[in-house]
Amino acid sequence: MPRLTDARKELRRAQITEAAVRCFGRSGLERTSIADITAESGLSTGSIYAHYRSKAELVQASARATLAKRAEVLGEYARAENPPDPDELLARMTSAIDPVEARFGVQIWAEATTDPAIGRIVEDMIDRMRLLVHDCTTAWLVKAEGGDPVAARERAAPIARRVIALYLAELLQTALRPLTEETTS
Amino acid sequence: MPRLTDARKELRRAQITEAAVRCFGRSGLERTSIADITAESGLSTGSIYAHYRSKAELVQASARATLAKRAEVLGEYARAENPPDPDELLARMTSAIDPVEARFGVQIWAEATTDPAIGRIVEDMIDRMRLLVHDCTTAWLVKAEGGDPVAARERAAPIARRVIALYLAELLQTALRPLTEETTS
DNA sequence: AGGCTAGCAGAACCACGGTTCTTTTTGCGG
DNA sequence: CCGCAAAAAGAACCGTGGTTCTGCTAGCCT
User: Fold this and answer.
1) Nearest CA to B129 among B99, B173, B165, B101?
2) What is the pLDDT of residue B3?
3) Which residue has the higher pLDDT, A39 or B79?
4) CATH 1.10.357.10 holds for A4-177
5) How many other C-beta atoms are found inside a 10 Å radius of the C-beta of residue A81?
6) What per-residue confidence (pLDDT) applies to B185?
């Protein structure tokens, strides 16, 4: 084949990372072999290495993609014209948690503990989420109580921090819950 | 050697798990080889396998030991005759966090995601901690406001859950912080 | 004090899995 | 359409690391 068109290429990359995330969520980062990912994605070893230099790079890409998706969802909730109060915001955030992604997320935390590159990704993403929540909370404060926006932003900071903390804890709890337990949708 | 006395045996086991936790905290569960642990502990391969059937079992033992130690500390704070208010309790809990153990703890969470045995250990330990915090919080409520103890216990439940959540989040944040950053004690 | 037995050291084994190489196929530019 | 270079398949390679095996060593029991 000649150089794949950029759209196709991006599609393949997504196909690979999505299969990878499913595998990781099922068996963990180190316990899923490249062979597992080929089986899950329907592709082959060579194909994967044509798109990612190494397994580590694939993990990074998967982490970025997953966390970005999560931040995306959060961003939508936060940008709603009628900003929800913190409790409501938290409720929405937690209800949007996907079990498989939660598992992968926790595994990524563990990896971040050791690998600086992953560490940067995770910290960056948490900061971004915190900022989103911060914005949302200040908007709510201003709308609910009026007053000085910069003072509201000041007061919103600790609230945002707490919302994020509770969200992360909820994510952890979801990740720890056995995968078969929540098939009652 | 003849059969080691039980005390000595327990000592060796502790020596091994402590070395293992240091290694895990430094390089992660899967990236530390048995060879690394032998180097860190000053013992040899054979010695380790004389005390633990496999690496998985060693990880479980290390997890149990570390989490138990953490619960121990928490228990002391919770059993103080003058029960601290929730904020103070949380502050004490977080101040007792050791960075290396925090890292190992997060890695254990990730492992729990995949391995049911580890999962049971983690969930059990979190439940135990929650119970301790719950006890402490009800004691504080009763002392601060008087009233019906069973009603106080009822009202303490969500507070305890939140304290635990915030504690876990703080643990995560500590684990993510680079190891070299907090050498300013 | 001495020896028997279990701990311990360290080499050797073996399998698994990441990466690479070769061959075949395929899609896009001319 | 045609061909070429890139991508995909899959076999092969190689290192790493968990486990096991073989002695030797040293502590407890009599």
Assistant:
1) B165
2) 64
3) A39
4) yes
5) 5
6) 43
Nearest CA to B23 out of B59, B50, B65 is that of B59
In this prediction, what percent of chain B has a pLDDT beyond 90? 80
Cα–Cα distances in angstroms (integers) from residue A145 to residues A78, A85, A90, A142, A155, in the given order = 18, 12, 20, 5, 12
Judge if the beta carbon of A11 is closer than 7 A to nucleic acid strand D: no
Tell me the residue length of chain B.
185
Q: CA A37 to CA A40: how far, in whole Å? A: 5
What's the whole-number mean pLDDT along residues B117-133? Answer: 96
Whether any strand C atom is under 7 angstroms from the Cβ of B11: the reply reads no
Q: Determine phi and psi for A147, rounding to 5 degrees.
A: 85, -175
H helices of chain B, in order, are 6-27, 34-41, 45-51, 55-79, 86-95, 99-112, 116-145, 149-176
Q: In A, which residues are within 8 Å of B110 by CB distance?
A: 28-29, 106-107, 109-111
- CA dist B125 to A153, B45, B170, Å? 37, 30, 17
With CA atoms as reference, report the closest residue to B78 among B134, B136, B125.
B136
Q: What residue segments make up the domains of chain A, in order of their start?
A: 4-177
